[in-house]
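Researcher: Structure prediction, please.
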Amino acid sequence: MEIPLSALFENVGLIANGKPVLKNIRRITPTRIIDLCDQASEITFYENLINSKSIFSHAASASIGVDRSPCECLECRLNKAYELAQFAALYSDKVYIRNFFNDYRSPSYISNFKKTDLTESLKNDLIIYTALLPLLEAGKVEMVSFGDICPHCLSIRALHENSKIEYEKASKELERRFYKEVTFSLHYEDGEVAISASGPDFLLPHGTLFLVYRNPTDILPQNPKLIEKAKASGEIKLTSNQAKEIKAAAKFSSRITDSVAFELGGANFLNSYYLSDSELEIDFICSLTRDPFARRRTSLMGRYLTCLVPFIDSVNIIDLLTLREREQEAFILFRTALSKAIDEYKTQGKSFTERDAQAVYSDIIQPRLAELDLRIRKAKTSFRKSGYRKLVGWAGAISVGLYTGIFTANPLAGVAAFSAAKLGSEVIEDTMSKSDVTEEIKGDNMFFLWKVKELSKTSSINGPVFN
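Model: Predicted structure follows.
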């Protein structure tokens, strides 16, 4: 029986109490990293996983899946991790993400790092991993490895027959877009060469991206003169021909096709749906698949979740998972209603947009929640007017008073006892009223979201944290 992935890291001291152990991460050798990540890849190999068989299971793009691509910045990845956690807890049955530890299995990948950079990269990956641990342990997020299958082959295997030509055509078109809309430069510093790309955000994260190579011959074996020019000036802007000579566009566009490969692989081998926050990726997928619902399956993208549920940022993820477990039937009703509302706001064949998400909340969700609030208030008013309820409340207060010793034989405690009993009656009455009243709205398909909204008022959270 395979050990859990978390236990693998705990056993070697890289994780303790749900957090990375920095001193042990700094001491680990590259050889040990390769060995550990070999085991991590085997544990999460797709053929060993049990398919969720749910229309609400998703294969996430690299960005949503908190991968190092498209942006390695820890802050960006943590923000994405929180969005992923929200989506998984509030909507999905399972979100598959690529096992980014799989990269460390490659000696050539590790050799591209300095020792300090390698341990820093591993530390960041473990921070992301432990941040998602509650979702991983709850089975709402699952890491997946496709082993040594290259992204190109994975895409082809996941598509229909005769798709190779379509895939190659789409990949070349993507490269052409990069050459047309992106500028490339070559940098040289301390024996390392970097290619930088600057262009629109939908092609590059934050509009710019650097790829660093410790061994210059890895990227420029045919043109060493370019390296000499970059070495002399520190930076040179590449002409269109120079960029094509070193295949610069392919080095950056491959990040998009690699992300698409995981989504396609997940959809095919794990019986899940695509999940992406990139229109470019969605368009790429739609150009490859004959599935008429390819675009619809990405309808609820993580980046629009706060538009659909503005108060979700105030809810502790663990509290949300607990609520979902406790109110399973109400959750299913809510999710079905939300999916239907989204479908009603989409134009046929078009993706779900931020404007659509805002409209769904303002036109459908918000009025329904306001209606439930009104029903609660009316029911509470009716409850408090009931003499019978008042009597039961007092009886409860007296019972509590006797049990806790508020009422004693000491006559000097009479006034205090009376005040305490009165206070107890009010607390019990209020508790009983809430219990009775919520029963009246429990069958409403927005009851679960109403509970989430109530939870947001009391959840102990300050910013994008998980616990």
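Model: Residues 278 and 371 are 35 Å apart (CA to CA).
Researcher: Thanks, that helps.
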